[in-house]
Structures are given as structure tokens and as C-alpha cells.
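PROTEIN DESIGN WORKSHEET
SECTION A - STRUCTURE
LENGTH: 391
C-ALPHA CELLS:
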């Protein structure tokens, strides 16, 4: 007899649990469930070898729980009863099953739980579960994650509950960081007016910038709170193509912090609109060889064309042709050959010579060996051999 899990869309999980031994039930309650998988069914093989699939049951149902206990011949009044583990309790709290919690509390079963109980209830917005724990008479175990996760997921009612609970409030910088990252202006407002200590660092603005949350950045700018930020904000906005974030910071009146990463990563990721923005911004342009090298590595011909026609100083190294060669970007190699720019390919020459030394300078063997090792490299070798360039 086996236990098989299903999610809400009736999709089975791969793993099955054998219930034929007396620890089968314990494995169910101690299984590390995904919160999507809340149903199960029993699978039985009869004497003729035929597989019989049973009905599906909700793992959090009280009726199901009692049936499982009966199925595995567990005597509720026995001292040898199966543990209800902290994993299962955390699962119940996440899904809001107060009736099962109440039944377990009043049963003879040994109840194990940890900080995940209250943390999970807070994470998923279950104020009623928090109330149940508060009045249960049981020891209350929780961590910073209770308030942090409630902030991350936008549960103002959970934050209010904790504030008025009379319990010690535990939280850290994660609360405001994730509220900012997820665009929860109402949560930021709640914290600002809560009268509680505001804990945050440069990550609040960095994460909001990474996600392109202009409204969050505007909120922080107008909040009257100290703004903590580093060069990573403009760097990451450039890397991810967020022109609106760049515009906001440019017009903010705040000191702008950024590094070569701005143009280097924009080039590497193919963001010509970002390159144009920086060129026309009137700001100091910071970049190095990684801009053109990275564009070559990732096959961005349009970026290479942009740099060639930009009128800016062209900075690149031997890595441009080497990385394009190794990643099989023949179109990039063709572009460089026809660009009229000085070609730097000492690294490529050394790479090819290394293969030739191993294979006795036999070009046919070179291609044969390359095909076996990596067909993409073989195509690159063919291009270089036929390029007419001295190698």
C-alpha cells in the first residue's frame, strides 16, 4: 500500500510512501510537503498484481486524519502513538486548518511544532490561526519571519495583529526590503506610521530598482526617511533595462552613484536603449573593455554596431574574439573580420595552437577531435581555418 501526493490541479508528485510498515504514517506527517501538494490517494496492489488507485483525500482534513490513523492501526489512547511532527503542524498553519489544530491539541497525540507554526500562519495571512495559538495555552514559538513574511506578502491585518498582540515583536531589515521589492506601498506606509523602529539598509532601494517599482522609489524619495543606497541601484537598473528607473534617479536631485557596470552590463545584455540613454544623459560615461567583450560573448551584433557608430572610445580586449569563438558566435566573428577595427586574437591563436600540439598539427584531426568534444567549437575552428587570417 502506498501514499501518492497530488496538487490542487490533480497533478501527482513523483515520490510515493510505503504504508505497509508501521512508520508509514510517520513519514506522511514528517514529509517535507510543497504547499501546493495537499491531496493524496492510496495505491494498493492486489494478489493478482493489479494496481488499484483509491479516492483522493485532502491531507489537512480532519476526516482524512482520523482515517489515516485508523488505516495504520494507530491506537489514539496508546503510548506508542505516532508523532505529529512540526512539518505537518506548519503545513496546517500555512493552510489555516484551525479545526485540525484544535482536534490535535485535545487528542492524546504528541504534538510537535516549531517557529514555522506562527511564521507560516503570518506568511499566508491567517490571523485566525494566530489568534488560536495565542489562546491555546501552548508555548508560542516564532521568529523574525512572522513579521518579515507578512510584510513581504502585503498582509497589513497580520502586521496589525502582531502590533496589538502584546507579544515581543521580532523582525529585521528583510521586512522593509521585501515590501519594497514586491511593491507594497501600503506596507511601507504602515511601518512608517507604526511607531516601531524602522530597520532597513541599502537593499530597500536596490530591490525596488531591480524590479522597476517607480512608485516605491517615489515613496522612499518623498518619505522624509534617510535614503540609503549605493552604486548598485543604477548599475542594476542599467543591467536589467529599466530606463524609467534611470530617469527617476537622474531627475531626483540626489547624488548619483554608479560604476563601469552601467554600460558594461547593458552591452552584455543587449540593451541598446540603455546605451542610448546614457549617451544622451549628459552624465559621465563609465565603461571598460567588458562592454564590447560581453556583447561579443553574447552574440549582440546590434550592440557592436552601436558602439562602432557611437563616436565613443572603443575599448575591448582579446576576450572579445576569444569568447565569441568559444561560444560559437560565427556571426560575431564575421562582424569583427569585416569591421575594419584592429583584431585582437592572441588568445584564440594560443587556443588553436594548443589543440594542434595535442594532435600533431593535423587540421583534419583537429576538426574531427573538435566535433567529438563540442560541435560548436568545430564550427568555430572551421571558420578560423578558412578565415584567411594568420593564426
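SECTION B - SEQUENCE
RESIDUE ASSIGNMENT:
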Amino acid at each position: 500500500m502506498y501514499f501518492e501526493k497530488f496538487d490542487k490541479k490533480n497533478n501527482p508528485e513523483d515520490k510515493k510512501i510505503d504504508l505497509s510498515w508501521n512508520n508509514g504514517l510517520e513519514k506522511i506527517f514528517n514529509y517535507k510537503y510543497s504547499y501546493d501538494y495537499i491531496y493524496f490517494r492510496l495505491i494498493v496492489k492486489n494478489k493478482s498484481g493489479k494496481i488499484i488507485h483509491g479516492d483522493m483525500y485532502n491531507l489537512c482534513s480532519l476526516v482524512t486524519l482520523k482515517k489515516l490513523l485508523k488505516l495504520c492501526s494507530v491506537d489514539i489512547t496508546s503510548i506508542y502513538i505516532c508523532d505529529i511532527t512540526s512539518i505537518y503542524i506548519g503545513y496546517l498553519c500555512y493552510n489555516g486548518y484551525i479545526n485540525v489544530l484544535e482536534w490535535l491539541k485535545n487528542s492524546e497525540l504528541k504534538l510537535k511544532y516549531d517557529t514555522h507554526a506562527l511564521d507560516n500562519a503570518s506568511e499566508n495571512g491567517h490571523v485566525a490561526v494566530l489568534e488560536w495559538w495565542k489562546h491555546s495555552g501552548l508555548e508560542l514559538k516564532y521568529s523574525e519571519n512572522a513579521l518579515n513574511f507578512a510584510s513581504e506578502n502585503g498582509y497589513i491585518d497580520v502586521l496589525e495583529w502582531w502590533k496589538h498582540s502584546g507579544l515581543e515583536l521580532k523582525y529585521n531589515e528583510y521586512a522593509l526590503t521585501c515590501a519594497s521589492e514586491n511593491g507594497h506601498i501600503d506596507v511601507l506606509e504602515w511601518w512608517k506610521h507604526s511607531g516601531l523602529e524602522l530597520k532597513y539598509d541599502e537593499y530597500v532601494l536596490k530591490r525596488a530598482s531591480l524590479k522597476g517599482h517607480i512608485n516605491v522609489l517615489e515613496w522612499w524619495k518623498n518619505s522624509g526617511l534617510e535614503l540609503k543606497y549605493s552604486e548598485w541601484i543604477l548599475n542594476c537598473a542599467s543591467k536589467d533595462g529599466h530606463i524609467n528607473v534611470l530617469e527617476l534617479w537622474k531627475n531626483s536631485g540626489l547624488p548619483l552613484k554608479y560604476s563601469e557596470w552601467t554600460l558594461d552590463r547593458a552591452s552584455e545584455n543587449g540593451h541598446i536603449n540603455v546605451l542610448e540613454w546614457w549617451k544622451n544623459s549628459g552624465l559621465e560615461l563609465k565603461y571598460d573593455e567588458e562592454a564590447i567583450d560581453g556583447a561579443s560573448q553574447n552574440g549582440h551584433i546590434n550592440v557592436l554596431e552601436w558602439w562602432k557608430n557611437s563616436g565613443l572610445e572603443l575599448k575591448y580586449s582579446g576576450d572579445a574574439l576569444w569568447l565569441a569563438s568559444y561560444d560559437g558566435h560565427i556571426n560575431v566573428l564575421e562582424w569583427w573580420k569585416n569591421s575594419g577595427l584592429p583584431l585582437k586574437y592572441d588568445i584564440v591563436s594560443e587556443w588553436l595552437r594548443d589543440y594542434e600540439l595535442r594532435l600533431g598539427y593535423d587540421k583534419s584531426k583537429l576538426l574531427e577531435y573538435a566535433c567529438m568534444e563540442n560541435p560548436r567549437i568545430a564550427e568555430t575552428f572551421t571558420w578560423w581555418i578558412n578565415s584567411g587570417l594568420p593564426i
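SECTION C - NOTES
The longest helix spans residues 346-358.
Residues 28 and 111 are 15 Å apart (CA to CA).
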